[in-house]
Design brief:
This protein has a single domain (6-189), classed as Rossmann fold. Helices cover 35% and strands 19% of the residues. It has seven helices and nine strands, in the order E-H-E-H-E-E-E-H-E-H-E-E-H-H-H-E. The chain has helices spanning 18-30, 49-58, 87-99, 116-120, 139-160, 165-168, 172-175, and strands spanning 6-11, 34-36, 62-67, 71-74, 81-84, 103-107, 127-129, 134-137, 184-186. The strands form three sheets. The protein has a four-stranded parallel beta sheet with strand order 2-1-3-6, with helices on both faces. The chain has a three-stranded antiparallel beta sheet with strand order 7-8-9. A hairpin with a 4-residue loop joins strand 7 and strand 8. Helix 2 packs parallel to helix 3 (87-99). The longest helix has 22 residues, at 139-160. The protein is globular, with a radius of gyration of 18 Å. Mean pLDDT is 76; it is low at 176-182 and 190-203.
Amino acid sequence: MNDRPKAFFSCSLLTEDFAFNAIIESIIVRYGFEIRGGIGRYHFSPEPISIQMKKEMDISECLIVAGAGRYFQENIHTHQLSFSMSETIVAEIGMAIQKTIPIVAFLAPNVSPGNLLPAITQYINPKYNNKIGKYYYDNDQIDKTIYNCFNIINEKRKVANKKNLKDGLLKLGAVFGVIGVGSIILSLFEEDEPPKMKNTKKK
């Protein structure tokens, strides 16, 4: 029996975001997820997008978000600019909330989580290392987030299929430590210093 957790992969389809998507994909594959969903990346059909999204979401056990930036947005109070995610990613987050499946969200550098994501779940933000001039994801945060994601999936599997409980449980102990000691470096986002978002407030 294939007991790998089925993950709907929500991501940008823009060419310039493929490298970021690949980083997140490599992380979740190493943790043992089976990637599905990903309309336009893993799933192709002439059906309306909304129908494809619903079908794939219905057979997925969690949502993995690769939150690349699509638009500039401005805080009306501070006038600080940031990037926001695409409408499709936000819509898929909404569908996951409705289906009550866990959401593991990775944000790209300088991408705002918006209002919806922080209201319903924690998310993984890249940190900046001044010494090496690169962004990175903290392994400990990823481990704990995915461990809890697996626990939620296991509980749902127990409810759905108590008879096959033993076979249906995820092998939690086998998936941790596979990435190794240290943090996951986002090498493609090398900078001399963190990018500064333009402040448009007039003095």
